[in-house]
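Friendly challenge for the regulars: who can give me the structure tokens for this chain first? No prize, just bragging rights.
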Amino acid sequence: MLAYVIPLCLVLIGLALVLTMARLIIGPDLPDRILALDTLYINAIAMLVLFGVWLGSDLYFEAALLIAVMGFIGTVAVAKYLLRGDIIE
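First reply, four minutes later:
Bragging rights claimed.
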């Protein structure tokens, strides 16, 4: 059963990545692009975890954790820049 479901989920998450990339490029203003970037890294985490489950490898989970930490820091930094115009006070 998982042999059919996991590739289907990978394709759907790949489609979500493509649509999010389109929102990142076409986004009408900066908050939309920040939200698309946040969604993009969340979708990348989901794809890595699902791929790790499919292959049975722990390496993909570690990469997903690194992307989660870096994505959170990046989102906070961009939001702080958008609010104040400066990242470091």
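The chain is about 85% helix and 0% strand. The first helix runs from residue 2 to 26. Your move, everyone else.
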